[in-house]
Fold this protein.
Amino acid sequence: MFSVLTEIAPEIPLRLDTEQRQRSIRELVDGACASQMSWVSLDEGDNVVGFLFGRTRSTDTRGMKFSGVELLYGGVLPAHRGCGRFSKLLTEAKKLRAPLWAVVKRANTSAMAERLLKYGFAKQADSLRSDEDTFVWTP
């Protein structure tokens, strides 16, 4: 999965140019997989070509204003887009029947913000940082 994330990282944008950044992202991915908050899309040869990583968040956590699932990173390799793979990943996350929260950087070049709006997410009026937008889906 990390190789797929590495390939689409520039679109997110996500910097993986140092060992420390790579280690931090691997820890996030490992945590999402261990908590069963990760979904993958496989091609015909059972190779991972898409993913969606999440983690449970709660207002019980200091500073957190959201309870539900935070969608950390998601995407599909360019050669496998346009087939509904990402929408299927979102459908799997929605099956949790918990609110979903996603933050999209405005520099994202994969039209992720538009994609989330298309699948029922609502753009929030406030974001934590001025260079990103927050989206929420509520069951």
